[in-house]
């Protein structure tokens, strides 16, 4: 009898200890759950809804950012807001969508696929432009690591190579100075391009200049695109040229430039004799041809920034004169070329002691 009572007591004590252990483990598990939830709330990305995405597309802090995001918004906003697309905006038919967005829905992979299909199916959007738009979308969705990575994987699959562009050398600028325009449009285009080659100004900023912004040989203005204060020293003949261009009818000039600028510049370049054979990558396609074929509205701006870099102007001043916030943006405008000094060093122009060498 005593043995049975002792056994019962031992079992009861064992059960009690086990219950206490289980309670302790349950408290530990609950504590760990609470800590995990706290960490997830603090560090895990919040869910990006369609409504938040639309708000982010419509609200940007910088002027340059606003211009870029407005372009992206133009393409994908009808999809996000369930508006109809016009068929003529697409290469073929309007893409078939997997998902019907609504403001409260989280952005998911099907929606990303739909937005990608809209962007890649639009007329006149090259793979390099697709990449630029998708990088913007990735930036907006950066709070969601999963969606951001999903977009990034598609960007990598595009295998887009960086575009290459041209700028004019001092000798080629001189040739452009000497070319004779055949009509008023060519005259205006020539002057605007030369102004750009020395100031790096966008055409919209040239027409906005006032006399008060030109003091001596220094132009001071606020960039219409970026909102940055810009100060550029220029030759006096460029100041006079700016005043002459401003005397023309601004609106007639701007409306004609939209359709003729890229046609007139190669024509002037051809007559000027800017015909060195060059390789240029456009829309992910490598092309070869005489240099004048690739002179476009932005070539003058690239020419000015490249000239300044070759002159050894410090990076801080170079960035400021270009109207940029980041020197990395400015560096993308600089086109590398072999200077006459380098050619002289590396060729027969400067053989030095090697001149006496014979086999």
Q: What's the layout of helices and strands?
A:
Layout: H1 2-43, H2 50-58, H3 63-80, H4 109-121, H5 127-140, H6 145-158, H7 170-178, H8 184-199, H9 203-208, E1 214-215, E2 218-222, E3 229-233, H10 236-246, H11 250-272, E4 277-282, E5 285-290, H12 299-310, H13 315-322, H14 327-331, H15 340-346
Antiparallel strand pairs: 1-2, 2-3, 4-5
Helix pairs in contact: 2-3, 5-6, 8-10, 8-11, 8-12, 12-13
Explain this structure to me?
The chain is mainly α. It is 58% helix and 7% strand. The protein has helices spanning 2-43, 50-58, 63-80, 109-121, 127-140, 145-158, 170-178, 184-199, 203-208, 236-246, 250-272, 299-310, 315-322, 327-331, 340-346; strands at residues 214-215, 218-222, 229-233, 277-282, 285-290. The strands form 2 sheets. Strands 1-2-3 form a 3-stranded antiparallel sheet. A two-stranded antiparallel ribbon has the order 4-5. A hairpin with a 6-residue loop joins β2 (218-222) and β3 (229-233). It is elongated, with a radius of gyration of 32 Å.
Low-confidence stretches: 41-45, 349-359
Specify Rg, calculated over alpha carbons: 32 Å
Main sheet specs: 3 strands, antiparallel
Query: Based on helices, strands and strand pairing, what is the structural class?
Result: mainly alpha
| SSE order | HHHHHHHHHEEEHHEEHHHH
Report mean pLDDT, rounded to a whole number. 79
Strand content: 5-15%
Principal-axis shape equals: elongated
